[in-house]
Design a protein that fits this description.
A 4-stranded antiparallel β-sheet has the order 5-6-4-7, with helices on one face. Strands 1-2-3 form a 3-stranded antiparallel β-sheet, with no helix packed on it. It has about 90 residues and is an alpha+beta fold. The protein has one helix at about 65-75; strands spanning about 1-5, 10-15, 20, 25-30, 45-50, 55-60, 80-85. It has a single domain (about 20-85), classed as Alpha-Beta Plaits (2-Layer Sandwich), CATH 3.30.70.
Amino acid sequence: MTTHQVDSYGPTVTTNDRTADPGPHYEIRVAGHLAPRWSAWFDGLTVATDDDGTTAIRGPVVDQAALHGLLQKLRDVGIPLVSLTQIPSTPPQ
């Protein structure tokens, strides 16, 4: 049995009483401009530069351990963290 449900965090698909949720979505804002090719290094998250001299790294993160791993990657290469925000996921059209 498969059911579909949408709440404030986006769609949740339940199959055989198991939830297949991609996880909460985050925006990690860093100082400087990173090229879109950094997306692969950040586990497929979207990398977009802004005119204010920052880069936004956005997308779903499976769990807190994965989020801490992403932040650790930033720290390890010396990319300054500007902000971290949980954002609502967008349900598919």
